Amino acid sequence: MDDWIDYYDSTHTIYVSKLHRDVHFRQIAEDIVGYIPSAEATVLDYACGEALSAGRVAEACARLILAEPAPGVRGRLIARFAPNIKIRVRSLDELRNMEENSVDLAVMNSVAQYMTAQELDTALMVVGRLLKPGGQLVVGDILRPDVGMAQDVAALLRFALAHGFVKDALWGLARTALSDYRELRSKIGLQRYAEAEMIGKLTAAGFTAARAPNNIGHNPSRMTFVATKKD
Question: What is the pTM for the complete model shown?
Fold first, then answer.
């Protein structure tokens, strides 16, 4: 995961334009809000990235913890959300010192593909300790073994068409083909899971899990799972 952390901590071109970046984070935030159980909930966004629309998530809960491994991104989060008393920014290491059974909802969106299978197991154990009995973990944007880059490109172009950045998307795809992202994806690869395999992982970590009807974000060919911590 360290190579991917360094990539996302750099000046990367994963978003084809400012509009793409903004609508991406806005949709993620709205999808997360749909899982928040109540206005009194404590929510954890694990490896949250830039989380530009985290303010929208914070509006729907009592406390939002943004946990981010990349130090540069974490610094920007601290600066961006300093005025918001509902939001706290933490490193992943700091989660180990948080009070157990203190979180109502945890979200790991577009994270598992950048981890080894063992790293994911460790993360699930950390999050499981923090969740209250009956609390939920939402694991989103899981790549399937039978879905390749062509489906990702098609999903991006549909998203671009819906939000008016098709030209930027085409230029961005050309840039990505020559970028560090493509090189890393080719060298390291992205972790993929079949539906039964991911449910098995979540079950082994102490959850009751099922696939959600819709994926978080714009790519319907990827999967989201909702896992409930066993009492």
Answer: 0.86
